[in-house]
What does this fold into?
Amino acid sequence: MDVPIEKKKFTKSKLLMIGAGVAIVALIVFVIINSSGNSKLNVEKERLSINEARSGIFQENIPVNGVVMPISTIYLDAIEGGRVEEKYVEDGAIMKKGEPILRLSNTDLELSLVNQETSVYNLLTQMQISKNAATQNTINRLNQYTDVESSLIEAKRVYDLNKKLYEKNAIARQELIKSENEYNYQKERMQLANQILQQDSVATKQEQSQVQNSYQRTQNALELMRRKVADLVVKAPVDGQLTSLDAEIGQSKNKGERLGQIDVLSGFKVRVDIDEHYISRIYTGQQGSFTFNNNQYFLVIKKVYTQVTNGRFQVDMEFENEVPEGIRRGQTLQIRVALSQEKQALLIPKGGFFQQTGGNWIFKVSENGDSAYKVDISLGSQNTEYYEVLSGLQPGDKVITSSYDNYGNVEELVLKD
It folds into this structure.
C-alpha cells in the first residue's frame, strides 16, 4: 500500500523570492520616506552659527577697494623737444612752484631765436630810417607851406595897397588887376598847401602805424621764441612732490613726451574700482566709509568715470571731514559705498547658507532649541554684514547662517550639545 507524500508549502527557491521581495519593498519604503521630507540629521551645535533675526537700521552698501592718490596731479610734458643736459633734482623731491627740474638743449630752436632777434633789430633800424625820412619830409612840407603863406601875405598887401592907389588914380587899372590875380593865385596855392600838408600828415600816421604794427608782431614773435627757448628748462608748475621722473642725462625727448608729474600734497583723494553691475546706481554725492586705526572716516563721490574696463569702472572719492593721520599715497583702503538711505528692517547676519539656498529658505531653530527645520524666506537688499528679510521670519527667530554644504536634502536638523 502506497503512502502519500505531503508537498512542502515553502521551498528554498520560494523563500529566496520572498526575501528578495521584502528587501525591494523595504528599499521602496526607505526611498519614499526620504523623499517625503521626513529625513533628519544629527548636528553638533558648536559646529553651527546660530543667529537671531532682529529689527535694526539697514543701509544697502557694497564693499570696494580704493587707492589713496594726491588730490591733484599735474603732468610734466616736454613743451619743446631736446636733449637732456642737466637734472637739478631726483624723483621724489619736494618742489616749490618755479623751481627748475631739468634742462634740455635744442640747437635748432636756439638758432631760430638768434635769427628772430636779428630780424627784430633790422626792422627796428628800418623803422628808425623811415621815421627820420618822414620827419624830414614833414619839415620840407612845412617849409613850403611857410613860403606859400608868406607869398600870400605879400600878395594881399600889394593888392590892398593898389586898390587904394587906384581909387586915387595913382596907378593904372592894369596894375590893380595884376596884383589881384597874384593875390588869387597865392590863395589857391595856400589851399593846395593845406591839402598837401593834411594828406602828408595822414600818410605819415598810417605809415608809422603800419611799421609799428609790423614791429609789434615781430617783437611778439621774438618773445614767443624766447619763451620756447626758456621752456627748455622744465620747472615745477605748482608746489608738490615730483614723481615718475623719466629723464636721464644725454637722453633725447620729443615734443609732448611725458617727463614726470607733480603730486599736489595739499590733500588726498581715493580712486575706487566698482563692478559694472552697479554703474546705474552710482552717482556723485554718494557716501562711503572705512575704518582706519580703529576710527571710522567718511568719503563722498566727487567724480564718476563711466568708461568700463574689464568689467569695472572707477570713481574718485574725497574725504568728507578730516583726513586720517598717517595715510599715505598708494595705500589701499577697504570702503563700503552706500547705495541707499538708512531704513528700519528685519535683519539676519550674512553667512554661508546663501550659497546653497540662494536666499529662498533657511533652517529655523525650534523654540526649545533641540532642532531646526526648513522655512521659506524672501530676502531683499544686502550690505557687507546683513541681509534684509522681507518675509518668512519674525524678530527673535533664531536661524542657522553657517554653510549647508553637508546637509544634502535633509529637511530637519537634530541639534546636539
